[in-house]
Specification:
The chain is α/β, with parallel strands linked by helices and 216 residues long. It has a single domain (2-163), classed as P-loop containing nucleotide triphosphate hydrolases (Rossmann fold), CATH 3.40.50.300. It is built from 8 helices and 6 strands; from the N terminus they run βαβαααβαβαββαα. It has helices at residues 12-19, 56-66, 74-84, 100-112, 130-144, 156-162, 180-186, 200-215; strands at residues 2-6, 41-44, 118-122, 148-152, 165-170, 173-179. Strands 2-3-4-1-5-6 form a 6-stranded mixed β-sheet, with helices on both faces. α7 (180-186) crosses α8 (200-215). The mean pLDDT is 85.
């Protein structure tokens, strides 16, 4: 799993829109999986709405159908996706009965319904309380072991606990690409200890962004 960090306006949403085929790049090209052919891609946007009166199984079946799954196979595909996010036992309940964290997991199920090779997630834990965030994080850790995942987030703990690599976007370009440990240790300067209120990753990220500010 790769984390994508950057200030507001850095280009994260634009990059994700290009990766999932919602926007064409103005120049250059995008390849996923080492090929210019588009693999199956799942996308979970930061904000999404689902009709509250729909059952979970119907919601995810519809998402599967929208992404090319044969109509006769949508229900089994939806059930597998719901089980992957630990909502399988609630498949016949209404969306309106779900908590905020469960709705986020439902969104992940929608992104998984067509069994994508690549899953792109935009702020999947935003606005959740600590226990909900942890539960969503556990789900992402489980599904991330089976496919390529790009996680855009402002929650650095998500990157710390979920991601093997991290990219930092600044001004529409990749300013850093490496492991989480490299961002944590190689860029953290001891003269900026953060008063004991920062994690090592937060300190490394802040130091790197400060360096970019010095260069601009």
């Amino acid at each position: 799993m790769t984390g994508l960090l950057g200030e507001n306006g850095a280009g994260k949403s634009t990059l994700m829109s290009i990766l999932v085929g919602m926007r064409r790049p103005l120049s250059g090209h995008v390849s996923l999986g080492g090929s210019s052919e588009t693999p199956r891609v799942g996308f979970v946007p930061q904000r999404f709405t689902t009709p509250g009166e729909m059952r979970l199984i119907d919601t995810i079946s519809y998402a599967a159908w929208l992404n090319g799954v044969d109509r006769r196979a949508t229900a089994p595909a939806a059930q597998r996706a719901l089980e992957a996010v630990d909502l399988g036992d609630r498949s016949h309940e209404r969306v309106r009965t779900l908590s905020g964290g469960q709705r986020q997991r439902l969104g992940v199920a929608a992104g998984l319904a067509h069994d994508p090779d690549v899953l792109v997630l935009d702020e999947p834990t935003v606005g959740l309380d600590p226990s909900q965030r942890l539960r969503v994080r556990e789900v992402l850790a489980a599904v991330g072991g089976k496919r390529t995942v790009l996680l855009s987030t402002h929650v650095l703990e998500d990157v710390q606990f979920l991601c093997h690599r991290v990219g930092v976007l600044a001004g529409g370009t990749i300013a850093f690409d490496g492991t989480v440990d490299e961002l944590t240790s190689a860029l953290a300067r001891p003269e900026h200890p953060g008063g004991g209120l920062e994690s090592a990753l937060e300190r490394g990220y802040r130091t790197f962004m400060d360096t970019l500010g010095d260069d601009r």
